[in-house]
Write the structure tokens for this entry.
Amino acid sequence: MSVPTIPTIIFAKEKPDTPPSKAAKRKEEPMNFWVNLKLLLANRSYLLLTITFAMLYGIYCSFGAVVASTGPYNYTATDNAIFGGVFIIFGVLGSFVLGVYLDKSAKFKFLIIMTSGLSMVFILLGLLTLPFNKWLFTFNLALVGFTVIPIIPISYGFAVELTFPVPEAMSNGMMILPS
């Protein structure tokens, strides 16, 4: 503890006298974990989405290890940095583009199927081009990022739509758990 924090400890209130917003005034119903979990486990579409999300999220998380271990293919640390940057930049771009499309069309299932299928193709192409050509591999990483990273926001939105009475924190949290 430092001296400047003493006035805060003495004079700060535990809670404000009035709620800061209308949303803060609202009384939330207590969440019943077991009832919500039962609803989630009974929802077949949600379970299929969770499996798809877990696989693609696992690919997304482990792709850094693949890109970082390109030493046997005579790529430098600079090449690895470019690979990672391209993957992330195109992933954010893909999230933006597909998010705008999703807002206009609400075709969650179509986007999940499309991104899953395309990401499998581009990952395979990326692994096939890894040993041969740096620029072709970089291009494939851009395509992988464009299709793999958007699975996160698309799946979150779709999970909320599939499990409506269940709070979104519960449906998204339980979807992340197996990942």
